[in-house]
């Protein structure tokens, strides 16, 4: 069985491969552009992306979308996380959070998988807080300012540990379970 991981980031393909080892699913990197619709919901962005790809005749694929949702900023940067990271960055977020005492935030990852004509959409989350300053050198994006345990930032923990608790790790785990179920149902 083959699944195209449609992304501009080859690192994601390796991550999917690692989780799907032993399931007999081959992950292939594909760069196919599709519109990311304007919506405040990751799930809507993913479902519309899947519909567009299917209209182009593409099947058996995975797409995903993630973001950081900060409670006291009304869910900002949310679906705009990539753009906000490139523009105001972590320093900008820390400025917006200056003096804010409730620092709760949640990372979310939505994955859409089309396999043998069936769509599966899963959402993984990771709750935590926005730290008062950026810390650590691992990871990417908002990792230095986000802490799941209120002690260390995501940029201060090893990648394997991050994957065990992260929104993406949780979402891939949910998808893996769903696929094991689907594959076993399809067996004669
Ligand atoms: P993507 O949809 O997975 O590409 O994520 C969109 C944006 O959310 C990224 O460009 C990052 O800025 C941010 N983001 C997503 N996941 C993470 C993470 O695990 N750590 C830090 N930032 C993340």
Structural overview:
The longest helix is centred in the last third of the chain and has 20 residues, at 167-186. The chain has helices spanning 10-20, 42-55, 81-87, 89-96, 159-165, 167-186, and strands spanning 2-6, 26-30, 61-70, 104-115, 118-130, 146-147. The chain is globular. β1, α1 and β2 form a beta-alpha-beta unit. A six-stranded mixed β-sheet has the order 2-1-3-4-5-6. It is 36% helix and 25% strand. It has a single domain (2-186), classed as Maf protein (Alpha-Beta Complex), CATH 3.90.950. It has 188 residues and is of the alpha/beta class. The chain has six helices and six strands. The mean pLDDT is 93. α5 packs across α6. The chain starts with a strand and ends with a helix. The structure holds inosinic acid (IMP). The site of inosinic acid (IMP) has 15 residues, from β3 and α3.
Care to give the gist of this entry?
The protein has 188 residues and is α/β, with parallel strands linked by helices. The protein has 6 helices and 6 strands.
